[in-house]
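tool=predict chain=A
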Amino acid sequence: MSKRALIVEDDRDLGGVLLELLEVLGYESELAQNVEESILLLKNTGSFDVLITDHALGEGTGVDLIDWCKARAEFNGLRFVLTSGYGTSHFDPAVLNDSRVAFLHKPFALAQLKDALV
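tool=predict ok
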């Protein structure tokens, strides 16, 4: 059984690249382009193993989405990969010090994504 990933990326081209990269890594993935769409997928599509989200999204942030998931018991097993062009100093240390959250600075390589998913 393949692992499942939800990608939240408002850049359609980058989202498509992430879908392809995750397929190479053995993930079945779905793509959402904003927080609202991702919440609908999380609620209605079933369980995901990992949520990969860009930080800067049009009407919210990846951190907002991660916090929303963490506040709900049904997502206790979900792991997170937060991607951003901002450096780690932009984020509250509590976000990045959580063992369920991996951070990838854009641009990142396939090997870095693979390491973040382990």
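The first helix runs from residue 12 to 24. The chain has a mean pLDDT of 94.
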